[in-house]
């Protein structure tokens, strides 16, 4: 069974009545981080059919496939940022303050693209190894899920990601029967997705009048040096310590 079918089945079984989910697989699409965020906000706010969406994909941190920000033919004053490190991007929540969250000097000297997304949440570094998942739901389609960040996160953990990772663990063990493979259990701790005590994904929500969006960037791999662009948040769960 494919990952998309696992998540779609989990979403439907989580609701009190069957939810019709439109699935969008953007892996291999060539869309950039900026284009992914733009598409998500458009589907949340402007989908004329008010559909529920499940979206998955990995994206180029810098190079856009469709969006052009130069706008030379329109005579605007946009100036493209001078970016040296195109291998990652820093994405901040809508309320984030760069001086509190970023090593400004390192970020500027390396020429890293910094974006602010339309959702809340913290700051993440994303690259080609980041896997993005997004759920866009309408409040009347999932009336038992209250449109608040903690309720949405609990639903996503219980109904979607816990059964998904359980199935993936079973697949791993079935393919390695001759080896004793121990995989840590998935859990929601505070506001984090964790394996054991290790956070492995960043989450954020956007909530509007008739629906909400919950998106996650999973770190399947990362470059240590890219994490130097981030400062330790002033507020963080106790279990993380200095992480």
From TrEMBL:
Residues 86-235 form the BPL/LPL catalytic domain. SUPFAM superfamilies: Class II aaRS and biotin synthetases. InterPro entries: aa-tRNA-synth_II/BPL/LPL, BPL_LPL_catalytic, Lipoate-ligase_2_inactive. PANTHER family: BIOTIN/LIPOATE A/B PROTEIN LIGASE FAMILY, BPL_LPL CATALYTIC DOMAIN-CONTAINING PROTEIN. This is BPL/LPL catalytic domain-containing protein. It comes from Helicotheca tamesis.
């Amino acid at each position: 069974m494919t990952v998309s079918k696992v998540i779609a089945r989990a979403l439907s079984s989580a609701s009190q009545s069957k939810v019709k989910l439109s699935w969008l697989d953007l892996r291999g699409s060539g869309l950039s981080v900026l284009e992914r965020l733009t598409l998500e906000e458009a589907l949340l706010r402007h989908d004329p059919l008010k559909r529920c969406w499940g979206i998955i994909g990995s994206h180029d941190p810098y190079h856009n496939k469709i969006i052009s920000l130069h706008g030379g033919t329109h005579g605007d004053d946009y100036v493209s940022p001078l970016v040296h490190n195109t291998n990652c991007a820093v994405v901040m929540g809508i309320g984030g303050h760069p001086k509190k969250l970023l090593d400004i000097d390192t970020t500027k000297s390396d020429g890293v693209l910094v974006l602010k997304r339309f959702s809340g949440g913290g700051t993440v570094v994303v690259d080609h190894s980041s896997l993005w998942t997004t759920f866009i739901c309408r409040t009347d389609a999932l009336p038992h899920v209250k449109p608040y960040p903690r309720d949405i996160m609990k639903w996503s953990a219980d109904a979607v990601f816990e059964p998904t990772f359980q199935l993936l663990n079973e697949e791993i063990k079935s393919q390695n029967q001759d080896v004793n493979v121990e995989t840590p259990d998935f859990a929601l701790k505070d506001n984090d997705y964790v394996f054991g005590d290790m956070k492995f994904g960043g989450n954020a929500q956007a909530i509007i009048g008739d629906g909400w969006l919950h998106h996650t960037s999973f770190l399947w791999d990362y470059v240590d040096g890219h994490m130097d662009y981030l400062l330790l948040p002033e507020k963080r769960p106790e279990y993380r310590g200095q992480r």
